[in-house]
Design a protein that fits this description.
Layout (H helix, E strand, L loop, with lengths): L6 H5 L10 H9 L2 E5 L4 E3 L7 E7 L2 E6 L5 E7 L4 E2 L1 H6 L7 E3 L3 E7 H8 L3 H17 L5 E2 L2 E9 L3 E7 L6 E7 L1 H4 L2 H15 L9 E7 L2 E7 L3 E3 H8 L4 H20 L2 E2 L8 E4 L4 E3 L6 E2 L21 H4 L7 H16 L9 H10 L5 H4 L5 H10 L11 H16 L20 H15 L9 E4 L5 E5 L1
């Protein structure tokens, strides 16, 4: 039967398809088919091979979700403007759930071969499909597993994709699974960078670097299986608390330095060191994460300009801002910016305009941290000043020297000198007839106190006029 409305006009009102240019939308509409379904009719049957996406124009659908024994545990309702069958669009796998018309339903059908070529040229549409996939995973709407890992729910979202909690069914180990957005799957640079991150971090076994266990390919994209961190990222800590005590900041910086020293020794620079990429657990253990911009450290820096300026503008080293070839010294500068922020509660350069921020890193001296925090130990002041030097050849970049500055202060703070002695005086006024009992009580107190470490006892007697007339050490 002919559609009651123009397919292109209808798709232009559907979230996700709104991102398409009119010409592309028209080409896609020309490849759609229109169908009407009677109440109780199946649009999709569980287990059948699927290659078609349904866009509901009118009516209501039900999607029953069943457990392993086939018992219905919940039902999702689908209405006008909703999509069903998107998993088949992305994967071509067998259908995971039945989809049944509750009422009379009208829908446009889009075949996988018609839509897939558009995804590479339209990242917003691909991102929209990733969002749908993320919601399906979060709700366990028929998507309860990636490879061998059983999915438990969504943990968060970043610039390259979403992160989910999962568990290994045999080892019963809880993990985090990072999914590459479909908007980036079709971009070779981002896809290769995502997979390279997994390979890189898997090779860096260190107590202060997040662990990567595995990778998976599913649902038309890629997943990195990594250690699930139970803690808070440092950016959230600083937003809540502001400037940190010197000893705490020094301990965090020392662990970050340990992670970076290890990565540099194995030939890699992180290139995106910042508080959001450091997670701190309840015991104070710090984990460096997100190696998505990490690159091998070149043996010799070339004179040619870098192809792109990568990193977070607030923490970018001057040589990166200038578009020069870089090495591990950019991580040292970024750690210096972090140190400044942790110790003062503010960044050294605070303009909101990216170009002005990059120019500040290149040309503007950072504020004197000693003037902002006169109470800082000398080692931390030296650390900040040495790491924020503009010229990478003059910057303090020797990790043993830098960590000595941090460890010295942390050790001093962790093992403070003895506190000032405290003195308590007990004064007893009594009549001569009570002297025997008072003397006995005072002697008992002296016996209890004598021999205690750090305790010195002095005993005296006052004359009736209030003058001391004897002193017994």
């Amino acid at each position: 039967m002919p559609p009651p409305v123009d397919a292109a006009e209808f798709l232009a009102t559907v979230r996700g398809f709104q991102a398409l240019e009119p010409d592309d939308l028209r080409r896609l509409a020309e490849r759609t088919t229109f169908r009407a379904f009677a109440p109780g009719e199946f649009l999709i049957r569980k287990g059948e091979q699927g290659h078609t996406l349904f866009v509901v124009r009118r009516g209501q659908l039900r999607v029953p979700i069943t457990d392993a024994e086939g018992h219905e545990k919940m039902v999702y309702r689908v209405g006008p403007g909703d999509l069903v069958g998107e998993m088949a669009l992305l994967t071509g796998d067998a259908r995971r759930n039945d989809v049944v018309a509750d009422t009379e339903v009208e829908a446009f059908l889009i075949h996988r071969r018609s839509l897939m070529p558009l995804l590479a040229d339209h990242p917003p549409l691909a991102r929209f499909l990733s969002d749908i996939l993320g919601r399906r995973i979060e709700q366990s709407g028929g998507i309860d597993r990636v490879g061998k890992y059983r999915l438990l729910g969504k943990l968060g979202e970043g610039s390259t994709g979403q992160v989910f909690e999962a568990v290994h069914p045999v080892l019963q180990r809880t993990v985090a699974i990072k999914m590459l957005s479909h908007a980036l799957v079709f971009h070779t640079q981002f896809r290769d960078r995502f997979l390279e991150e997994a390979r890189l971090v898997a090779s860096l076994a260190h107590a202060n670097i997040i662990q990567v266990f595995d990778t998976e390919a599913a649902f038309g994209t890629y997943f990195i299986v990594m250690e699930k961190l139970d803690g808070t990222d440092l950016a959230a800590v600083l937003e809540r608390r502001g400037a940190l005590p010197p000893a705490e900041a020094g301990a965090i910086l020392d662990q970050m330095a340990a992670a970076l020293e290890f990565a540099h020794a194995r030939g890699f620079a992180h290139r995106d060191v910042k508080p959001a990429n450091a997670v701190i657990d309840a015991r104070g253990r710090v984990k460096l994460m997100d190696f998505g911009l990490a690159r091998p450290i070149p043996a010799v820096l070339g004179s040619e300009r870098a192809q792109s300026v990568d990193g977070t503008p607030q923490y970018i080293a001057p040589e990166t801002a200038l578009g020069r070839q870089t090495d591990g010294r950019v991580d040292v500068y970024a750690l210096g910016v972090m140190a400044f922020e942790m110790l003062t509660g503010r960044l050294p350069f605070t303009t909101l305009k990216v170009m002005e921020l990059l120019q500040s890193h290149v040309r503007t001296p950072p504020p004197d941290i000693r003037a902002l925090r006169p109470d800082l130990p000398a080692g931390l002041v030296e650390f900040v000043r040495g790491t924020l030097v503009k010229d990478p050849d003059k910057r303090v970049t020797d990790w043993p020297r830098l960590r000595a500055m941090l460890r010295c202060e942390a050790a001093d703070a962790a093992s403070p000198g003895p506190p000032p002695a405290r003195e308590d005086v007990i004064r007893v006024r009594y009549q001569p007839g009570a002297a025997p009992r008072v003397e006995a009580a005072v002697e008992a107190l002296e016996r209890a106190l004598r021999g205690l470490p750090g305790v010195d006892i002095a005993r005296g007697r006052m004359s009736p006029a209030g003058q001391e007339d004897s002193h017994e050490p």
